[in-house]
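Quick one - inputs below.
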Amino acid sequence: MIGAFLTWLEHSLGKGPAPDAQSWSEALLGSLNFWDLLEGSHLIGLMLFAGTILVVDLRLLGVTFRGTKVSVVSDRILPLTVFGFIFVVLTGLGLTFAKPLFYYHNIFFRVKMILIAIALINILVFHSRVQATQDSWDADARPPAKARVAAAASLIAWVLVITCGRLIAYDFFECGKPHSDFINWAQECKTSEKGEVTLAGKRL
Amino acid sequence: MSMNLEQFFPHARPWVENLANTFPGKYVKPQFAWWEIGHILSLITLGGTTILMNLRLLGAGVTDEPPSEVYRNLRFWQNVGIIGIVVSGILIGSANAERLYDSAAFIVKMLALLAGVILTYGASRPVAKADGAVSLPATIWFAIGSAIFLLGLGIFVTSDLVNVGVYHIITAAAFLVLLVTRGRLRWIYLGVLLALIAAQFVGTHIVYKGDDYAHLNPVNKTFTVIFSVWILGCAVAQVVRAGRDAEGGALTRIIAYATILVWVMGAAAGRWIAFA
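Output:
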């Protein structure tokens, strides 16, 4: 069902009646510069988003801004982080819209989405559980273990998100090449346009 | 027009072609993706610390602390970012030298790196350390760094195929000005900016169709100039209106703008190496 929706998104949505008409997705991918601009903007947006979240996490780990209250660091920096996040999400959605089937059948993209979900859950846990007692440790140079664990989890998750994001561009596990059963299953190669090929070279 | 290293060092091509087969390129190539990830993570570390330190000089960000305190807390991580991009950049460059040799964007990136290092270590950091006071050496370094920055920008703007990447710098400048302007100026700035974006959309999607490059090219170039003039004008207005306070004057703020934007130019040019 998802595959059918993405096929419609990539090949049909916005397509006119002319024989050589392009869907919106195809037009975006084939645009002279727009896709490149989106991709470059996604990377530069990361400098703001991930770069500022790094500083907040380092404060929670007790590594930097040790003399500044945690609430001051987060209140002043997190609005920039949120702005950066919205920017990278919008540019990321644009990039995904240009090649939805490619991303859907890409294992790095799938892992990236799972990691983003984990990172967002970590933020929710931090706000609901860890921040509840923040008044008692707000000025501490070294916040309590639960805050440091949340910060470490955040850092690891975002580093892995960025790592997977970059690896999407590489064809290590591209469908249509011989892969293990696990890889073929994990990225649903059987339903992809290039199909599934086993390590023995058998095309399914 | 398009400038690349081959025009300056035409006899170096055999050496460049062989770089990927010798140390360290030969050893980096099989792990190219991982070094590239290291390059991006370093860039992000540099970006976050540079943005926060220079925003403080512009009167935004962590305003509860003086600029010197922001500098003291971020300098180590800024060093990590810069050393990271240089080391990983040399390694991935050695494995990919032929592409860089033919690339105009690479020249822009190298000028941005040089200007970025000069502006960061010669101007921005000393000024932040002195809580906004601009010394004579910082002024001199700023002049040198800015001249290299503008040279790189000039090459970026006039290089075929990669010049579209200048829109990354314009976008970053647009957001930066929006962030640091206050009061009525901010709303006027935003309103005109949105009107310009709408006008460009109408011009390039309704007045002229998407495949009419003969008309679209001059229209887009005209809008690039208009956007730049508007953003730059509002930045100047912000700098002048803010006047001189305990944490520096107009030159302090100009240094902060330039130091953020020079690294954005480096990142943009780096990405456009892959596109053209």
